[in-house]
Amino acid sequence: MRFEWQYEGPPLKLAAFLKQQGFSRAQLKKLRYQGGFVFVNKRQRHTAYLVRSGDRILVQTAPEHAADSVVPYSHDLAISYEDDDYLIVNKPAGVASIPAVGRQNNSMANMVKAYLIKTKAESQAVHVVTRLDRDTSGLMVFAKHGLAHSLLDQQLHSQDFVKQYVAIVTAQTPLATHGWIVLPIGVSDGFYMRRVVTDTGKASVTEYRTLDENTAGAMMLVTLHTGRTHQIRVHFAAIGHALYGDGLYSPDTHGFNRQALHCAHLRFWQPLKHKLIDLHAPLPADMATLAAKLKLSQQD
């Protein structure tokens, strides 16, 4: 990948300038040792070189090698947004984000790799920025190269990156119109796949707004402020409002065959194109049907 800038400012080491652009220490090492190049005013330079105002800087990153463990799997993708740096897809429920033992060929990562090959993308390495549980649907972000991945990683747990879910939960007791769930989450002693609220767990913060509610259930808009495994599912189960269909955290799925959870909204700053990306994904058919059955409406 090629990146170009014109430097304006006081004298600065080239390495420091590149770190300002989002290059990690590991990426700077790749530039030096794995086939990358850095030019200043059309002359190749070491990263210790001092750049001055008006200098033109060009970086050719080292080639990225696609992992052989991710086998391309050709399948239609519901693409919500794409540019030279990012690919955002609307993942269906029932599909894993990344390959797992015994399911090596049909994850979203496998599908994205096939798409990158088909479209002759410069890098065919798959960079997963945000993951979703197998049975959670909605918006999922892939980066098309290492720098794009590194830059977005820096936003993930900041106010610049907004990730919101719609959940349909049971409603034994009324929920606040706006509330927070602040409970630490750790791994269950009895089953490594299950997470539990525990004093020894990691700090976890979930914000919610109640969009609609009745005696049958509630439609929630949920914002994550930390990124723990199964965080929304664990937190709502812990306060007595387990998600419809979530058999891992509730003895009763209420006849729904997966957790009623959908990543409906993403907003972040595209650091290389210098623009705001703001995307919405409507409820999938199964959750829309459940909402209608429960007489719940989704409001903005």
Automatic annotation (TrEMBL):
It comes from the Bacteria. The active site is at 133. Gene3D superfamilies: Pseudouridine synthase (3.30.2350.10). GO terms for biological process: enzyme-directed rRNA pseudouridine synthesis. The keyword Isomerase applies. Its EC number is 5.4.99.-. It catalyses: a uridine in RNA = a pseudouridine in RNA. InterPro entries: PsdUridine_synth_cat_dom_sf, PsdUridine_synth_RluA-like_CS, PsdUridine_synth_RluC/D, PsdUridine_synth_RsuA/RluA, RluA_PseudoU_synthase. Pfam families: PseudoU_synth_2 (PF00849). Transmembrane segments: none annotated. Keywords: Isomerase. Belongs to the pseudouridine synthase RluA family. PANTHER family: MITOCHONDRIAL RNA PSEUDOURIDINE SYNTHASE, PSEUDOURIDINE SYNTHASE. Responsible for synthesis of pseudouridine from uracil. NCBIfam families: rluA_subfam. This is Pseudouridine synthase.
